[in-house]
Amino acid sequence: MEYGQWWQSLHRTMLRGVLGKTFRLVGYTIQYGCIAHCAFEYVGGVVMCSGPSMEPTIQNSDIVFAENLSRHFYGIQRGDIVIAKSPSDPKSNICKRVIGLEGDKILSNSPSGFFKSRSYVPTGHVWLEGDNLQNSTDSRYYGPVPYGLIRGRIFFKIWPLNDFGFLRDSPNGHRFSDD
């Protein structure tokens, strides 16, 4: 075999090897990307909450785990803390507590706190409020939230470690029953 033929053969072999590895890497990247997407979309993920609306339950910069299976199986209940797309700004997410489900009549304080208002939660919607009622933009401002905007249910606080654990109780006097 001549030197030129040997060099071309080596070059083709190396090119095939590099192209084969590149295509395998691209294939694995797509495959694992799809798995990661499904895991984050349907199973859940870690979320950092910001803002004062859920204080004292969730402080600014707390890290929580949100599971997404409940929203797919309509398992959201009164008292759950959820992550939802903001009805007033679809580019941002909100973290609020579910106060009412479809068909519920809600008696809540107005945002100013001077008077009470009655609202009805229509089919396919939920009523969301922050635990810090004086510092929360929630359903008292924008009304019932479509169920489809719910992204996940927060049930476990990861950080800070001194608050590590499950979440459920409401500090502002809301009582929840499954009646």
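(ticket continues) Second input and output from the same batch:
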Amino acid sequence: MTESGGPPAGPHAGTGHDDATSPAVATPVGEPLVVLSGVDKHFGSLHVLQDINLTVGRGEVVVVLGPSGSGKSTLCRAINRLETIEGGTITIDGQPLPEEGKALAGLRADVGMVFQSFNLFAHKTVLENVTLGPVKVRRTNAAEARRRGMEILQRVGVDSQAEKYPAQLSGGQQQRVAIARALAMDPKVILFDEPTSALDPEMVNEVLDVMVSLARQGMTMVVVTHEMGFARKAANRVVFMADGQIVEEAPPETFFTAPRSARAQDFLSKILTH
């Protein structure tokens, strides 16, 4: 696995996250944690994932970029079997994805997921949203779950909102709660499916700051995003997809300054000039 992480240089599409904050410290990448081999997926006649081969090392941050319809979100959702695959294999920490039942629930406990929409339980408080999984799935003692939940809410900067309901929070706060909910399960990897795309621009940075912090702390992350500043700052590797295929992958500075494929060059020429 290639490690990288240079400071942002030049314009970044889709983000106001171009502050002077130093880049995330490169995290040593460990043994393979998520492995996709020959993965295929169709939606009807549309071949959305075509022979996908991708390995994510323990402690690695992989950012998946590409135009709309390239298969990025489907790839992300396939990793925890929110989308089934028709060919190939996916393993998490050496274990193949289970198809259903308790084994699948156990897998999803190990693979956190943060969506575009926050998917919080509207009738439960922020703290109840965060503690529900550990209590129900991990069988954590309720008092310990609350203690740990408050620690995690503090980690993402919303501990003062613990007793409020999601509707009382801003979009950025809700997404940080969603990240806290994923962290509460002590996952091996967290998948982010365009986590800032539903946010107002002024709320994007507060979520990205939390994600950069997680990257610095060594969390294994697969991030589908249009936030180029985050990709430069926090990724060990950028994976570029188009038309259901991985076209190229490289350290962020290499990808943004010297993309190899004509498809990536065209993509970057369109987004980095705005």
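Agent notes: DSSP finds nine helices and ten strands in the chain. The radius of gyration is 18 Å. Closing as not reproducible unless the customer responds.
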